[in-house]
Specification:
Layout lengths: L1 H11 L1 H43 L4 H26 L1
Keywords: Actin-binding, Repeat
GO molecular function, one term: actin binding
InterPro entries: Spectrin/alpha-actinin (IPR018159), Spectrin_repeat (IPR002017)
């Protein structure tokens, strides 16, 4: 009975619920960070292929560079926003 009463106090404690929510949010954030890390390879591959394309077809350099720059800016913004949420 004492154990149950003690756990009931814990369960009713608002800070317990907040801590549990924080833990769940942290787990989701960690999963999201892992997903970003996994997709960083994809970004590097696209970047490499874009640079190779500009060497093979110099007439596309301006267009490809613009697209790659935009992609990198978006990625950087995503990373910085994600890191800011981690704080």
């Amino acid at each position: 009975k004492l154990w149950i009463d003690e756990k009931m106090l814990t369960a009713q404690d608002v800070s317990y619920d907040e801590a549990r929510n924080l833990h769940t949010k942290w787990q989701k954030h960690q999963a999201f960070m892992a997903e970003l890390a996994a997709n960083k390879d994809w970004l590097d591959k696209v970047d490499k292929e874009g640079r190779e394309l500009t060497l093979e077809k110099p007439e596309l350099k301006a267009l490809v560079s613009e697209k790659l720059d935009d992609l990198h800016k978006r990625w950087d913004r995503l990373e910085s926003t994600t890191q800011a949420k981690a704080r």
